[in-house]
Amino acid sequence: MSHNGTDDGCDSDVGVEPGDKLFRFVVHGVLLNAIGAGGLLGNALSVLVLSRPQMRSSINCLLVGLAACDTVLILTSVLLFGLTAVFPYTGRLRYYYYHVCPHITPYAYPIANAAQTMSVYLTLIVTIERWVAVCHPFRAKALCTSSRARWYVLGTAAFALAYNVPKFFEAEVIERFADGELVYCVTADLQFRTESYIVVYIHSLYMIVMYIVPFSALAALNACIVRQVRRAQAERARLSRVQRRELSLATMLLVVVLVFFLCNLLPLVTNSFEVFLSDKFDKLDPLVKMSNLLVTINSSVNFVIYVIFGEKFKRVFLKMFCAAGIWRRGGTRDSPEHTRDDSFASCGERVSLRLARNGTLRRSEARGARRRGGRGAGGQLPRPARALARAHRVLPRARHRAVQHVGRALERPRAVLTALAGAARRRALPLTSTRVLCE
Q1: Is the model's pLDDT at 69 over the cut of 90?
Q2: pLDDT tens digits for 18-27?
Q3: Where is the G-protein coupled receptors family 1 profile domain (predicted)?
């Protein structure tokens, strides 16, 4: 920690116009904090829903990792930008502004960058997974597994931390005096942030790793996915249930990537200006604040996308958090309890398939119901039971009629043989003629 005895406070507080303080308070102090609070709740709900046993899959494992790193990014954004925007305009949270935030910034800032890097590349991995599932479905079973997805998440986290290790050494905390009070301020470590470091790592490598590579790959892969989705939608009537589910999931993740592009477009422009117009960068401070807000929005909005476009996610979410009675009143077709297409039918082959699939328990219950002769409301049997009873009444009669028809059919050749034998005896026909006629 460096010591500096000036009485000017922190450098970031000097020469700031009231209008800039108001803009920072509205964008960071109000909007970023409010959206961040909603994003934390949404990401927590996403993790709870996506980790349910019925939601277990490779893509959902990746989405859980994405929600986790987005949560870390939101927390660090609120600590670094949201809460620090309150004091300059309102005078509140002074202790946090001058004593807490300076000590956590050297650690929260690198963690925020690592979380952002991890979020970018997990979005890319999700897109690659969908590209394999949609464009190369025969290879998806081997490549898109839950165990592989866990390794992808861990590998992305390791890469993000390794890439952002130098940022732990970029800032230092110094002591200043503001209104006669000892305060702490964060400033750049000029001994570490040399001119070569800024040009190579902060400007060039950051543009390549964070924007050029992931944006180019996302654009190419999603172009292939969109083309395949359009082709599949034209033949939707001939798609199987699994193919329709993959199509719906691909559409949902296309929306996730589209929001990612929109929210990271302004940060891309701002960083480009910083690289090529560094002498005029002070005039772009409002764009920087808006970029921070858009990054927070991107990390907070995925839950809303899952609820709107993810049919299975919505069913499981409603089953977990909404009153079951409300949805049962609306009928069983849209109920979250019924997530399969092989629902119980009233009669025919669907009944036998369901009984065979569910094992001996349901068969024993059906036999017990027939023995008890249980009846539903109004003194009538339930519809499936009535169908089974009707089948048991009809089948014996049909079997008896079939046996009678077979018996009559077997008696006809015997009668013919008897008549021909009698005629042969009366007319003294040779036995060979009788054999020929019978054949």
Answers
A1: yes
A2: 888 999 999 9
A3: 42-306
The rounded distance, in Å, linking the Cα atoms of 332 and 227 is 36
As assigned by CATH, the class of the 2-309 domain is: mainly alpha
pLDDT tens per residue across span 33-47: 999 999 999 999 999
**pTM for the whole thing?**
0.70
Give the residue extent of every domain in the chain. 2-309, 383-438
Confidence band, pLDDT 50/70/90 cuts, at residue 275: confident
